[in-house]
Fold these 2 entries.
Entry 1:
Amino acid sequence: MRRTHVRTCHICEANCGILVEMDGDAVRAIRGNPDDVLSRGHICPKATAIADIEADPDRLRRPVRREGTGWVEADWDEAFCDIAARMAAIRAAGGEAALYIGNPSAHNFALGMQLGLLKKALATRNVFSASTVDQIPHQLVQMWMYGHNALFPIPDIDRTQLMLIVGGNPLASNGSVWTVPDVKRRISALKARGGRLVVVDPRRTETAATADTHHFIRPGTDAAFLLGLLVALDEAGLVNPGRLAPLLDPGWKAAWEAFGRFRIEALASWCAVPAEAIRELARALGAGPPAIVYGRMGVSVSPFGALNHWLIQCLNIATGNLDREGGLLFSVPPADVVMASGPGSYGRYRSRVRGLPEVMGEYPVATLADEIETPGPGQVRALVTVAGNPVLSTPDGSRLARALGGLDLMVAVDMYVTATSAHAHWILPPCGPLAKAHYPLLLGPIAVRNFAKYAPPARPLAEGEKDDWQIVAGLAAAIARARGLERPAPVDPEAALDRWLRAGTSGLTLDDLRAAPHGIDLGPHAGGRLPARLRTADGRIHAAPEACLADLDRLREAIAAPRPPGLLLIGRRHIRTNNSWLSNSRRLVKGPDRCTLMIHPEDAARRGIGHGDTVTVTSRVGRVTVPAEVTQAIMPGVVSLPHGWGHGRPGVRLRVAQERPGVSLNDLTDPAALDPVSGNAVLNGTPVEVERAAPA
């Protein structure tokens, strides 16, 4: 019997509403939901891939155990018992366990509620995640300045007059650390009301192509550009925090004293954005109408990730646009993560091999291979990955793949045999996406608008299927039991969500959301949330975090140092991909080859490279061979590879993906390159050499 289910697309951060037409358990059509309170009918191509995932013959339906080069199905009890016994034996022999959590866990409220049980059962400090190749600088700066790592200022694009995007491409990402469906329409509306969009990026991205102004910038130099804007604001007498002034602690004065030691011309020369362009943009930001400075992936995965995000916060404060309608706003969501969780942590302990500080309870993932490979007390001998593919998403993936092959035990909670899970001893596959409930617990609070929306499963669990949260809770219980610990009780996701909703300010319950399948619109965000929303001990904005202020000295040294020769490599994303997760969807991979090396015509000509030629790209840690895409859309001196490719590795069982496997950007990125403040990996600005490949 055909039935239409009202759902939310779980794949990216936009949380678009979808209508899924099903005949029994078979998906017949997926389209945008015109009644959805947030997305209003918009979807991108990724939503249609849900049908491919549900029906994919490569998707695992039962636990599998590796035997030689093959896999053998098993039942859940056998899997849990064997894993728990082997984990206990490893711990008894002095080996350590580790946990890696991939970013899909942020899209799955029920799974996220169980991860604490697994961390406790594993009893390890060796926790890693995709956060340290992504957004950890945001969280760290927010914790230091505002008192909680989840206090994300939200760009109010629907009411602003000027938006500056640095290192972000929301037309490809649908918003990143910013839930904003149909951002293209919102940009059009900004322009229609006389507003302006400015994009600063080493590539003329899809978003930059729609901007009123686009400036190329040398990769890794964003801090100089942002600092130049601050110096230019001061030079023009336009520093005006307005109503925020009484909330600023004495660090605000110290910050400006430090900023004043830099000169715009030197900063402009280093970042390659003209000094007059910096001054003009600073004047526009400080002119009075509401404005936004938003920085995302490009500024996060750089040598100065934390410094960049501090400078961005300073710009929004200095222009009076923080906590202002049309500027950047703080949400008060129906289920409030800020009120229900701790503020975060930094530097409570350090990693065994490289001595890197913990950040938000985890170590930088760039040191995971070190912890596996380096002998001695505390060596990691067992690893559990949950919804993660670090071989493709973290630096020097080839080295990590070799390290995984030497583990005594690896367990992957994954639907597929991927570049990472191919090394596992056990793969525990969750059910398909339509058998899961959905609530945007972590992403709703950073949405462009206040809303609440819950979607129940569109189909029941098939025989032998388990939800992600059931797998993680069951695994945690089995490991705890085998180690003689008290068996942890699983968290009931819906009961916990209902408690969070009832504790919020909206007065909503889970039953209210069940009765409103298209969602409940709670209106636009409001200004004036500060100081009430702050979680600092003194109720003030801590304007100059010590580590960020000190990092200005490192920036000064970098500006004075000789510039390295050769080309700089950056990543990129596409609307039809989502990290490494959708490459087995035939409807998404169709079309021209997207795994190409973008190179500027001048750089190509110097190397005798033509469009479509096969080229070899070499970094300190690796080498890949890929087709060249000669284009004016990339800055001279810069080349670009997309991330999330590289499915041709041995053991991968993704038939569609292996027809166009591409190469992995992270076979070239360097685990030695970190932002020393946040521990975030440096994935942009990798020095590389490019040459035309010799004919086969």
Entry 2:
Amino acid sequence: MKVVLIIGGAVSGSTAAKKLIDAGIRSVVVEQNRMPYGKIEDGLPRWHDKQRSGEYDKIDEIISNELVDYVPLTKLGKDIPFEEVLDMGWSCIYFANGAWKDRPFPIHEIENFENFHYQNPYVFWFNHYHEENFEGKNVNVVDNALVIGGGLASIDVCKITQLELVKQKVESEIENFDIVEMEHKGIPKYLSEHNINYDDLDIIGTKLIYRRNIDNMPITTIPEGLDNDMIEKRKIARRKVLRNMQDKYLFDVVDCTQPTDIIVEGDKLVGLKTISNEVVDGKLVPIKNSEKIINANIFISSIGSLPEPIKGVPMNGSTYDIIDQESGKFNDFEKLHGMGNAITGQGNIKASRVSAKTVSDLTIDLINDIDKNIFEKINVKVKEWQSKSSYNGDYFEWKEKK
């Protein structure tokens, strides 16, 4: 008998569970939230409605399978000690718990200012502030916004900010104003349909600064092993995607620009000191005498997310202590493997799914049978966990109660 524990049930966790189902192996999925959707639910801005619905359906089908035992509202390190899990005798343990902690901004003092925000709570606010029962922290989006980061998540942050700034100007003038419809159509087209010109709105807008050049911005993937011609085509695709986004949402991009300090006037954050970089053999080299100040009224950090530290789980700096990303194997632990955002640091669905498939393929033949007595003890413990979260084993009934 084999049984695998999966920490986290979203894209990577459900992908791993599907691999196990296909191999006839039982898994137990422990999820910290009520539903196993992870950042699909609150990492994607609310306009991704069709993509979100499709991903929900995929995950639902897997997690509701008879070979999967679901344990919701249970967080490793808080509700279940890591040492307890480690001593239970699982055939294997997969860490698919994603990356929920924003990577700390390199200038820590910036966190003391109310007009500074991290990406994860910013997107959460955008997804929920319009709801009647929303009780979270509100964000005051003001003009002249500065986003620090790079990649698709940063572009989403720029889009949110631009959409909110336009909304403030035109919501009272447009009957049945719909911010999601404006995202789908793009700002210029949406405004044009209502006989409004963006340039007449007197919006300074949003600026994205990225420490590398556009060719290095991870908007599209460039797999290892491609020849130079294919690499150049991928870089051209990156530039094209970014230009299309800028045309639709009207934000600016300044590349090769890195923050070095903050500018404070009185008790207010008003800007960042920056330096320009050049990319030499893949490394950033500061350009002498290139310092400048970029002023703004609101600052959003979108420099990536990290896995949350869990007491007892080995770390290597700010990430899990693994041998390599391909296997996800934890150092000094035979049966522990990480996958998805928990080890890649790439907050997108495709990267998570690829990582989960890779780790699963490399480890599935190594999953061993466990003793019958251990198997029964695991069954008892799983029932205990489910009982504490009031989960009765019927996944779709649980979902309906949401």
